[in-house]
Structure formats: C-alpha cells, structure tokens
Amino acid sequence: MAWLFGAAALGGKAGLGAVLGPVGLCVGGLALVGHAVYLAGRHRRGGGGPPKKSITQKQQDGDMDSSEVADHLNLGATDTYGNILRYGRPFVSGEDGDKYYVEADHIPPLQSFRMARRLPAFSSLRRINPRLHELVMSLENDTRGLNLLTVQVSTHHHRDALSSGSSNVSRQCRELIAHRMADGDVTKMLKQAFIIAHPYASQQIRDEAGLGNKPRPKKIFLSKDRTMNIYRAAFLELIRKYHEMGIIGDEDRNDLIQYVQHDMYLDSESELYQQIVRIVRQFGGHNH
Length: 288
Hints:
- The protein is mainly alpha-helical and 288 residues long.
- It is built from 14 helices and three strands.
- Residues 43-66 are annotated as: Disordered.
C-alpha cells in the first residue's frame, strides 16, 4: 500500500494511472474505500477507542443524575406488552453493560388474568363487565399477554414488587387480584394491583408482616421522589387507558385518580392494604 501512495504523490492521477493501468486504478481505489469504511465502522463500534461507559458507570461518575437515568431508560412508559417490547425496552440486552436495566410489568399481573378464567365467578363476568371479559379471553390467542397493558420499570423495582416472582406470597397476591377480576370488581382490582406492583408499598407490607428486607443488587440509583413520580404517572396512565377500553366507567376512573394522586397504595390503614398484609403474613414463612 505504501508504494501506491508514493506513486500517487509523484504523479497525481496520471502517475497512479500509469503505474496501475485502468483496471489496477479501479481495484486500488476500491481497496482504499474499503479500508476507510472498515475504519469508520470500527470507530462507530468503539473498537478504536476507549470502551463506552455503561449507564451504571455514568451515574457513578456523576455524568447522569436520577432524572436523566429515568428519562434515558424510558421508565414509566405505559403501553401494551407488545409495544413495550418493540419500542420501549432497548436496555434488556446490549453492548458495554447496557442490559438488564428494565422490565415490562403487567398491571394487573399476567398470571392473574390466567387464574381468573379458572375461577367459578368468571362465568358471570361477561354480564358484569363485558370488556374485561374480552380482555381475559384474549389470552386464548395471546398467551404472552402482548395486548395487555404494561409499565416499563427498573429491574430492581420489578423484583421488589409483591406481584413478581415465583414465591408462594407472590402467587397468593396474584390470586387475590384474579378473584377481584373474576368478580368484576375493577376498582378494587386496580387498587390492589397498584399496591402489589409498587416497590415501596410491597416493602412496607413485607416489613409489617415481619418478613423484613431482601437486599437486591441495583444497577442504577433512583431517588425516592423520582420513583414515586414514575409510578404515580404510570398508574394514572393505566387508569386513562383502562377507561378508554371501557373496562372502568367514569365514576371508577375518578375514584382511582384520587387514589393514585394521594398515593393511597401506601396507606397502611386501608382494608385493601391490610388484606394483602394478612396474605403475606400467612404465606410468607421462609419462602418470600
């Protein structure tokens, strides 16, 4: 390659053409272009420079604050599971450590929809709430719940929620929501779904039930205010969407909006909250 540049320097285009001839000039030019493309691609992939910082490292170094992390990860995005998978979860897998940051949380839980169909009360749901009945029955052709509503949340908050996991406590909490669903009691269904989906409410309940705290690794830090804002906005958006779908009426919507705006899923005095405390206390044991 060195002699090629030397020939070009000595004779310009004419000199290079004289050395290579028409065909050689074409091949040499392609080689130069190919090498340039390779270098550009290598630069874009970071192969020629220092490795790209992960989001975790950026936050630790002070390059991103809690608000910027939440915005960057699109936390609180509320849509169908299919759309969240398609557009909202770029940080489930990726290069340079940018993976396992987020999860899509079905609210109510996907398993609650599956359980509801097997309950005796479900036979009356078509009459009580036909839209909710349709949504539950949609799982016949949508086994992954791609058309059910989800919220994009941080992985550690998802794992903190009582609605998540394979423990007996989590299964019993999901079954509680399934009973509300089969009964067509959408207001209580959503209120208790919000309680068990919220990481702080879930931890409060574990503490009150005597299960204590389960330390979990965290790839990012989110302030308490930021976390509260994320969940409050997401719950309000879920209410709006369920109202649009005809699953909740105007009165239920207004009641639920007040419930969320006042963070009542953290109210340890409410009967809906205490019902979950009793479940966690009863089924917690050593497997929580």
